[in-house]
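Please describe the entry underneath.
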Amino acid sequence: MTRLFAACALATLLAGCATTADQLHGSVQPPAGQGHAIVAMTVRTYAPDTASATLYWHGVDNALSGSLRADFAQDTIFGPVGSTSADGKLQLLALPPGRYQLGHAVARWRSDTGGDDLAINVPRIVTLPLNLPFSVQAGQSVYLGDIRFNLDYRPDITVLDSRQRDYSHMQRMWKVNDSNSVQPQLLPGAQQ
């Protein structure tokens, strides 16, 4: 019994180490009865090395829920060769068909506050309501856009269409050959 438990624990640990490229095997075609939702999480701040964010989603037609996390000090999205990379993470959600919502996000970072010669590095945290609907169909992969966390001054989010960069990341880092099969389904309010 102890060996079985140890084997299961090791398998779980190793599965958690699998990269997105390992999971996709060269294709963004979802498993039977599933769909993919792809969303980028990026940041604009003076201190990306201290910033992170968690995005919370839930099902509208089902009881599923979860979160996606980006550590902007470690995660990078690579665009076309020769272009500037972005602090952030391109996320892949494998979901059953249905309607979903990105409910809210929580961002954490440190900022310098204080007077002329005195700067104090203060931890900051903010909860940002999103309420952004999306849907997933079986056999399809959809690109939702880039949720950019603007963390300086008045924290908020901007939804962007960063398809060129993100599709290049899928090809370069996820090693997929069919990123053009990902259908754009931009979140409401997405900017070019």
Notes: The CA atoms of residues 57 and 102 lie 4 Å apart. The radius of gyration is 18 Å.
